[in-house]
Automatic annotation (TrEMBL):
Transmembrane region(s): none
Gene name tied to this protein: yvqK
Pathway assigned in UniProt: Cofactor biosynthesis; adenosylcobalamin biosynthesis; adenosylcobalamin from cob(II)yrinate a,c-diamide: step 2/7
Family: Belongs to the Cob(I)alamin adenosyltransferase family.
Organism: Priestia taiwanensis
Protein's recorded name: Corrinoid adenosyltransferase
GO molecular function annotations of the record: ATP binding; corrinoid adenosyltransferase activity
Keywords per UniProt: ATP-binding, Cobalamin biosynthesis, Nucleotide-binding, Transferase
InterPro entries tied to this protein: CblAdoTrfase-like (IPR016030), CblAdoTrfase-like_sf (IPR036451), PduO-typ (IPR029499)
Length: 190
């Protein structure tokens, strides 16, 4: 099998069910998810210690789910079902709720950074936000699997929570944005 096919030399690429220009919104959306997946893989190389085994395993699961979301965004065939389901969104919500309890209360904006692993996760988080913007642009033009949009939105929140937990477990404090007002206040009873 050859790695190159030459079928894209004219600036077109294949989707599931058709061909489009390589700068099509759909290609930009799933391509940004691919970039996000790569940054998550890079961050995982910094999380091999036992302290982070749970996070490492979750990120590996997320990498597979990102492939599902990317595949769904590449799918324009009306007879091939989508792979991403609400369960993957629910999983992220449950993990976010747990990780919020593991880090110190948050009152101000924080700067990305701390440990190298946390900084790497923050990079993935910002790429997730860009992927979300790409998907929103695509959704304005064409039908998509809405779960992919929800998932990427929730994933950026998950990555934020994970970055804070990584710093906490390493004994590293988050750096608060020095001109930040109190923006995250806990509600009474929480």
């Amino acid at each position: 099998m050859k790695l190159y096919t030459r079928t894209g030399d004219s600036g077109k690429t294949s989707l599931i069910g058709g061909r489009v220009d390589k700068d099509h919104l759909r290609v930009e959306a799933y391509g940004t998810i691919d970039e996000l997946n790569s940054f998550i893989g890079q961050a995982m190389t910094l999380l091999k210690e036992e302290t982070y085994k749970d996070i490492y395993n979750e990120l590996e699961k997320i990498q597979h789910e990102l492939f599902d979301c990317g595949g769904d965004l590449a799918n324009i065939h009306d007879k091939i079902p989508f792979k991403a389901t609400e369960e993957i969104v629910t999983f992220l919500e449950e993990r976010i709720d747990d990780y919020i309890k593991q880090a110190p209360p948050l009152e101000k904006f924080i700067l990305p950074g701390g440990t190298p692993a946390s900084a790497a996760i923050h990079i993935a988080r910002t790429v997730a936000r860009r992927a979300e913007r790409c998907i929103v642009s695509l959704k304005k033009e064409e039908e998509i699997n809405d779960v992919a949009l929800k998932y990427i939105n929730r994933l950026s929140d998950y990555l934020f929570a994970v970055a804070r937990v990584i710093n906490t477990r390493a004994g590293e404090k988050d750096v608060e944005y020095e001109r930040s007002a109190l923006v995250f206040r806990s509600k009474k009873g929480e």
